[in-house]
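Next comes one such specimen:
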Amino acid sequence: MAILMWYYQNNTPTAWVYLALHGSYGLVWILKDVAFPDPNWQKKVTIMGGINSFLFVLGWYWVFGWLLISGTSQPIYPLPEYAWFSLCITLCLLGCVLMIAADAQKFFTLRVKRGLITDGMHRYVRHPNYLGEMMIYGSLGLLVWHWLPLVVLAWVWMGVFAVNMVLKEASMARYPEWAAYKKRTWWLIPFVI
């Protein structure tokens, strides 16, 4: 993002906020991967698999920053800029905390005891790590305030995240306590879904 800011000579507060949010999240994700890696991200992939992941999912996240920093998106926010920035920063920060805490809990709990995790971050919501990721990228989409991030997020959330959550629940259903856990928890957002 910093290179885009240099290339487009964009030194606006909006560009700096975007750089801080996207860059900080990237650093948080790297620290998480070093401290408690997700086995799903440790699997080897083919070159074509990597290209497909970039073209159909991860690369589109970078389009958000380009839209904003290139000036293609000239957002007119529904709230004053300072309030909108505060909303986006808060959403991103809380999303990072949820994602990190849920992934750390899963990593360290499963090292000690295999089985269904029903406490801590998973006490009320079955997929807090996905909720955190959605909050992070939702905050970036809100900061860009353009229709394309909405389409990208809908695709990733419905075509990737929802599918992964359904598969994860099918796997968790093998545990005897699954039915009771599912009945007393929410899929993604407490009191909503």
